[in-house]
Amino acid sequence: MKINFLASAILLMVATVAQAAEVAGKVGYMSGTLVAQRADGTVKVLAPKSEVLTGDLLVTAKDSYAQVLMNDGAKMTLRPDSNLRIEAFKFNKEAPQADNAVIRLLKGGFRNVTGLIGKRGNADAYKVRAASATIGIRGTDFSSRLCATKDCKDDDKLAAKSEPAPVAAQPQPIGRVMLVQGGMSAKEESGKERKLIIGSLVFEGDTLMTEKDSHAVVAFRDEGRVTLQESAVFYIEKFKYDKAAVQENAVLKLLKGGVRVVTGLIGRTNHDNYKFRVANATIGIRGTGFDAWCNGPCAAGVGNPGATQGNPLDGAGVYVWAGSVVMVSPGGSFLVAVQQAAILARDTGKPVQILAVPPEVTNNTAPRPDGVPPPPATDKIFSTESNVGGPGLYVTVHDGEVIVAQADQKLNLKSGETGFANQTVLVKMPAPPAFMTDPNGNNLGPSSGKGNIPPGGCQM
Length: 460
Prior knowledge:
This protein has helices at 2-20, 297-300, 359-362, and strands spanning 23-31, 34-37, 43-46, 51-53, 57-60, 65-70, 75-78, 83-90, 100-113, 126-129, 134-137, 141-147, 175-181, 184-187, 193-195, 201-202, 207-210, 215-220, 225-228, 233-242, 247-262, 274-278, 281-285, 289-294, 316-322, 325-329, 332-336, 341-344, 351-353, 392-399, 401-406, 409-414, 418-421, 426-429. With 460 residues, it is mainly beta. The protein folds into 2 domains: 19-172 and 384-460, Jelly Rolls; 175-371, Jelly Rolls (Sandwich). The chain has a 17-stranded mixed sheet that branches. The protein has a 17-stranded mixed sheet that branches. It starts with a helix and ends in a 31-residue tail after the last strand.
């Protein structure tokens, strides 16, 4: 009986080792040294075409890069001085529901172009884990890096040989997207466009745009909020707010479509610090909630942006639902009280009251911005004291989407976005930090096509 029990235990141990030793992929291109510590404790120096097994701890040496081609078509490129464990890897072409991959980043970083696991069957079958967060994959191309010290200086051994490149100052976020229904994007002053989702950051100089049949709510640092209606174009020309420095100044401009606005702390002490512009008119606030529109000749940017009493929505106008505003143009000014509306008159260019406010204005179906709560006081997204840049996990998405999860919090990242996570913070960053590229300035990543990294310089 004891012999049979011992034999069964031995067979179970052999089966467990055999299962852990299943081939998960092979080494593609490599430069330098790549070592695998097997699940049974043995160590093997790998070369191109060497097998990589489930349970392997892959270790790249200093100045070394390596690409691993997984059986499901995934390509993983390890940067220098990195430790990556393949905790689980199951892939069977005939059994997509049994797919499972768990990769744990212990040190350094890597870039991953995912394969079939997670794209077929169970979307949650592919996960990357680190000390502070888990990355859920949605069929994508992303880079991740685990930093033990500020700005990952513990890993940048190569950079120490030469003068470090200056790090460009990152712009401070002045707003955050709190709600999106449909599509929304931002165009930077440089002309670069980025797609916005819930949680995306907004910066001074951004031109915000919503698509047809879409709307979005943006919360600003001073607790003000703006709802962009469908097909709206809204320019954040200036926005300065710093409680400590007692600095406040906002210049916002509606270029096209409609917005709903609830003002924040800027302008409550000095009304002139807050300027809202539509066409050639300025809307001065008095602690206010209002709707503004810019259609027809106003949206076209023609010389006369005004509307008529017969069709007040075909031009520039404002409707007040809380407080009051002053509509000022070169032709004069008009005080608009609550539940009143005014337009720029097409015939005179002066602000005049709308005698019969259209139901499309009074029954606006877009959500009022004061109905969407601002970020909580504990939210560090606007804080200059945020420890982004410190130790933690950094994830940059090059294509597709990932979900970074920390405890009960989740952060969706799409193409071009970067997230940061440590034990207490989970936020999006305004731009990828410089250390997400390799020490030679290349964008580390598995190459397309044949799956080989160009000898002239790794891409990651």
